[in-house]
Design goal:
The chain is of the alpha+beta class and 101 residues long. It has one domain. The protein is 27% helix and 33% strand. It has three helices and two strands. Strands 1-2 form a two-stranded antiparallel sheet. The radius of gyration is 22 Å and the shape is elongated.
């Protein structure tokens, strides 16, 4: 193929999420209310999102890979694009710059 190398940068994207539950709705059958029960409802994904704020990305690591390593990772991370031709994958990666910035 080619001896071209690529840098894969791994990041974590962080959001601050907030949920809101009326305190009266946390009352159990004997009338007890505990605001901490709202955390259980959030954990169980029973609560709609109230708001969110993107806090940014943190870089975890990077690695230098050859074209085969890059293509292997491309297929693992984007299994729904596995059917793309080699040329299409290489062209997509070659256009790496985000023009929206």
């Amino acid at each position: 193929m080619t001896d071209k190398q690529y840098v894969l940068v791994t990041t974590i994207s962080t959001h601050r999420m907030r949920y809101c539950v009326p305190l009266d709705d946390l009352r159990d059958h004997d009338g007890t209310v505990d605001p901490k029960w709202a955390m259980d409802s959030v954990t169980m994904q029973e609560v709609k999102e109230f708001s969110q704020d993107w806090l940014g990305e943190q870089i975890v690591d990077y690695q230098v890979v050859d074209v085969n390593g890059m293509l292997d990772q491309f297929d693992k991370d984007n299994d729904y694009l596995k059917g793309w031709t080699l040329e299409k994958k290489l062209a997509w990666v070659a256009e790496w710059k985000d023009e929206r910035k």
